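### Sample
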Amino acid sequence: MAPKKQSKPPVKGQRSITMFLAGSPGVKDATEPAPPPPKRARTGGSSGGGSSVQQQQPSPSPRIKAGGIEAVPPSAGPPPAARQRIPAATPAGNRQALQQKLGLTGEAAAAAAGAALPIEPALTAAGASGSGGGGRRGSAAAVAAGSAKLTPLEQQVAALKQAHPGVLLCIEVGYKFRLFGADAEAGAAVLGIYAFQDRSYLTAGFPTYRLHYHVRRLVLAGHKVGVVRQIETAAIKKAGDNRSGPFDRKLTALYTKATLEAGELGGVFDSEAKGQQEEGREEEEEREEGREQEQPGLEARGSGRAGSGTEEEAAAAGRGDGRRRQAAASASTAPPQQQQQQQQQRGGWRRLQQLAQQAPSSYLVCCVEEPVKRSGGGGGGGAAAQVDVGLVAVEPSTGAVLHAQFKDGLMRQELESKLLFAAPAEMLLAEPASVETRRLVAGIGEQLAGAPRMEAVPSAPYRLASTALDAVQAFYGTRHGGTDPSGGGGGSSAAGQESSQHQEEGGGGEARAVALAAVRALPPLVLRALAHLLDYLRPFGLEAVLRLGAAFQPWDQVHEMRLSANTLRQLEIFQCSDSSPRGSLVGMMDHCKTKFGRRLLHSWVGKPLRQAAAINARLDAVQELSEQGEGHPVLSRLVPALRKLPDLERGITRAFHATIRPSELVTLLQQFQTLHQQLGLQADTQAASPTDGPGTSTADADATAVGAAEGSSRSAAVPLPQVHLRGVRSALLQQLLAAAGDLSVAAAATQMLAAMDLEAAAANNKADVLKPSDRFPAVMRLRAEVAAAQRALSELLPQYRRTLQISNLQFISLQNQGDFLLEVPPDLVKRVPKDWVKVSSVKKGVRYHTPEVRAGLERLALAQEHLKAACDAAWKNFLADFGAHYLRLRAAVQALAALDCLCGLATLASSPGYCRPELLGSDQPPQLCIEAGRHPVLELLLEGRGGQFVPNDTQLRGDATCCQIITGPNMGGKSCYSRQCALIAIMAQVGSFVPAAAARLRPLDAVLTRMGASDSLALGRSTFAEELGETSSILSSATPSSLVILDELGRGTSTGDGAAIAEATLRHLVQAVRPLTLFITHYPEVCFRLEQALPGAVACYRMAHVEEEGQQGAQLPQREQGQGEGHEEGGGAAPQQQQQQQQQRAQQAALGRVVFLFKLVQGVAPASFGINVARMAQLPEAVLQRAAQVAARVQQESEERRRRQQPAALGSGGDAEERAVQLAQQCQQFVQRSLLDGEVDVETGRRLQAEARELLSA
């Protein structure tokens, strides 16, 4: 019996659409052929036998489109009666609506919802469970045991996913990168690409040339992305033993938020060019697809492009072609909403660039902690109140390393301040960690522009500091940087070892020895954190930057001001409440022209100086730049030169990591080669050699510098010239300009450029980027082999001319068809030998490949692949020369960054109303004296709106008035005044001019603030607990040289408790510590008591205002008036009427409007005028009236209670002298209150007069 003829299966995309439309139970077209049975049964929760499996309904397959998962109903099932036509769903379609349209209700809907999961083969779970405990990686045997039904490519994918858990793998298959399983689900959600079921895996993909764009998007979404490439080409595969198997693939790169800019995809020089070319390349690709459809022989060429591997890979490439053509065809007919979404996706690169600019640094921070051991044992099971914390922060793209070990309290404020300064892109937390630390680390993203990527690492391998020290010493002692102890890392681990080797050979042993000596002196917890970072960075190949001892810097140094976490957040030093740098202090001061200058300014503002000499050195440089910059022969060229520079800091670090592209390196070296000329610096040849005449040119000086860089014998006799600085007075500017214009840097750049082919480098052609040299004999030999293979092919042409009898026959090359093609006219095709292979045909001729040409092309392709591998190795060895000059180049870049910061500060100093602050020495008492000071950020905002800022004076001295108690109406400018004092002090110690008429201060050691009211639910702290925790930190860390700002302390609880805590806290600060203090409160009794108790040290100030009269004729409700008349009879009517009049006047005063003057004057504010703010907030008028009545009644009751208490206190005062002191204080308060209120309480005055007469008569 002849087998039944089966219809040709549709294209993959069509088949998935058919299943989507017609696969639901009871919905199918009777005329439609039945789809093929599934290749394997889905594994579910049931574990029954084969018969039970056949009876089960096959579970539907998921499909992801534009980030959402849609269930695809099963293809097998009972034949439905009719078919329903369902319109195509858009990416923004509602899943519930789709289920209703497809008839998925009840059990079918539940099955579809359960199937909306990424499809993984069953061997993944089996291999993971059978590979041993502890989450270890499964072996290859476990993969092979469960992969009987998987294709070779799927077996390879399963092995890669099992070898690299937790990594989103982008696997190169032909000319596309594909995601499989759970990676496809996550990638489709982030990238907005289509995911579909392909055999055993859910899969999605994108073209290879879009790798840099999609990897960046995945990394910024928080994923750890691995790039798996085909490490063998079709030519090598055909010549090797792996002819029938899939291409050999290996993990070649890993990317996270902290390591992206340091890797091969983190280029900073051509990013903008890439972004501009994206749309053009997509359109060109679509046009190319359309041409390929019209050309014959497409199937053979497509499979050849994917390689001569398995049929599965070629078919995958073919299916990709079909789906991409379908996508291109549907793009023009897409609805307007979908077209708008596609346009938004095309603009994604620009958004990524903007996001990268907002985060200038990408620190990787490792945190290790240990609970503080308390003497006397115990400790209980409560949370660790105090812990010792070790922090190490590494910036792989710049080489900066910060470290610190400190003791932190329950609130973890010290840890929070360091994380706010570093703004880490990624964090490693050594587990186990305390609950408080985990809460802080998990919630720190709410205070930063973006949440850092978190990863927990076990602390057991380096529990002991000695173990960590041994691991670190082994890292610095070995030449290859050690191996990955876990055996992971894949190809990137090997690449990292090779990179480390060439960096060690280039860098020499001196830097390694210096770094090892610096590391041995690190605290134990810092050593443990450093050991964890080394293990983490090895798979990335970026650990070599830790060998540079010059990069290690303590997080907090003695000569730097300390800014607490509250200060950084509440003063908006780095970013505003909306996580934007605009409106912050750094945003206002940032006039830098380079990215590395902005990063250094961030460090300057976050860690101001404390030494007056260093601050004055910066101020001298800023003053000279602002006064003589435009007319100075050297300084006038500084800003234009800086404006042209790319991100040199990240560029040289990527060259050190051997991840830089040739085009970027050429741009980098050309900048260093001409840097001294751009800055207007000239070589001082007379200082270099007395025999040189005055006519020695700059080229001669460069030649001498090259000789010194090459280490020739003549360099010992002729010293390197020095740059000549004409007319620069500032010692700091001279030092920085000399370091930036170091001629040895230009010599090293000239030497490396001389060995490179600039045209090949511009095209990123590593095969030809290095000029012929005896240094790389393998490259020279393989280039000769390639030339010989090409020559052998060319020599075949005369033979073919004789065979075809065509004298003008030539080899031609066509895109997507090959090289060395012979085009024969149609009328001469009969002369073609039978063993020639037809490639394509057009109207003017037929194109052939001969057997000799095919064999020659194979030899040529193999030689070219070997040449490519040799050129890659030679390129890495060539970059070792750059590594030898890395420290010198880094010093030049740091000098340029400092010059950029100083130029930006000079631009700020040229603003109207800015002055140079006067820094006092340590022999002077702590003081902060400001004349006509202004808020630097708010002033700019007001100027933009046409307003004008009201300046204020500040006088705080440690030996005189060290505390100002500030009262005033709500929204009267109290907090603004205190903030401006702190910001002016910070700007002065950064080395900047300040917005004031005059400023004089002794450098502060810290600025400590407690402002605002906010809880921290993520950390489990209420508003009042947060308030008192911040206050406790201030009391424990403040010194006489600190500036302390306490804003409305005690408002989170009742009035009595709040006033008591505020008074006790301020009394302790003034008496025990005596820092410079600004205390803002709404408790006037605290002002009176402390000013009397601490005369000279405490002064009361208020924000001036003008009160307007309230609503006339305001009366009390009739109910209250009636009650008042009922309580008094006969002769008590007059006092009751007078009391009502007083209450009405108080009510009118409460309803009165307040005009803010924003001027600080001496005295105590009579009230807070909260009802005025309520009116500004547009509360209903009835609410305002009632609030005024309640406020008047409370004020009257308070005065009555005080009147009743005063005679009793006076009568029980003891002797006459004590009674006299009390009466004098009461009289003083009465006078002050009368002056503030603008009216005199006659009854109180008469009572005090009577008591005074009684005391005198006694």
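DSSP finds 49 helices and 33 strands in the chain. This sample (DNA mismatch repair protein) is used throughout the tutorial notebook.
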